[in-house]
What does this fold into?
Amino acid sequence: MIRRRPLLALGAGGAVAALGPFGALRGAAASPAPDAWWAWGPEGVRGPAGWVPWPAPPAGAPQAGAGALWWVDARPALQRLAADGALTTLPLAAMPDAWVPAPRGEGLLLTDGPLARLLDPTLREVHRWPLRDLAGRQSAPAAHALAHEGRRSLLLSLPGLGEVWELSLDPDAPPVFDGLVHDHRLGEAIARPGHHGVRRVPLREPGDAVPLRLHGVPDRPWVYGPVPGGVAVLNLDVRRRLATLPALDDLHAWQPQGGWLWLRQGERLQAFDAQRWQAGPTLPLPAPALQLVAAGAELWLRDASDRLWRGGPGKAWERQGSARALALAPDGRLGRLDDHWAAGLRGLQPAW
It folds into this structure.
């Protein structure tokens, strides 16, 4: 048997931390059992139903949603592998620009050129959105899509429009008011339905930039992502940029205990207070980092040699063995992928 080492990732409960163009591990349920995780590599995927060879290899990183793993192959076609092993396929006319599973199993958002479509779990289209500006004169493709579980919504990064969109999947979502506040000429007084409505975050003021990737926090009304010069934080309630934080790249971790957003600055980690977005504690990096996860009062780091480290504010980094991938489940469990073999995946276990 030949042992191989693909790039892997690990994720759980609504978000997957992609570490490379191929492969991942993520939680399929809030259970500490190894089979509660999705894991994949060049030959196939291991999930709750066991090992499944790829019917057609992914053209990019798969994404796991509630109860299913999704990917797009090179034909192109959209594939949905359910937790029970059932596979559903939808041929596509072209490779999508961006796509993401819906936060609570509602299906999948897929964008192609100037159009976004919501598909249900059977891959049937249930809604579509033209990707146009408010006046309907300009259209642009999406750069990235994000599922926000806490808000039960989907987000799109649209640099060509200078906007980020929030699309609500909540039937009880409040109405959406477009235009400038108190300006009846722009339709501010005319409410649009909140369910499947478009909440626009315009980013056209000096200092604004549209993040090419978005990251969310389940219990907070803001998202963040890399822009030239740092990381932009966007408030989805007031629909504007809150801050641009200095950062080297997209390495990040949200730590609910303390309310810190950790970002990389050179050879150290810098925490920012999520109340005022002011700099807080710093930590030197023990090694070149590939992945950072916050769990409770601790930070877990996977370095470029697949070594695993545990530390935190006031606590020195300690070696914790090795891991090919890390992710945090909604219930606070930290999972890791220990090993990969050509015939399948093994070594799926919690980190503690």
User: Anything to note?
Assistant: Residues 1-24, 28-35 have pLDDT under 50 and may be disordered. The chain has no helices and 35 strands. The two ends are 30 Å apart (CA to CA). The CA atoms of residues 260 and 350 lie 24 Å apart.
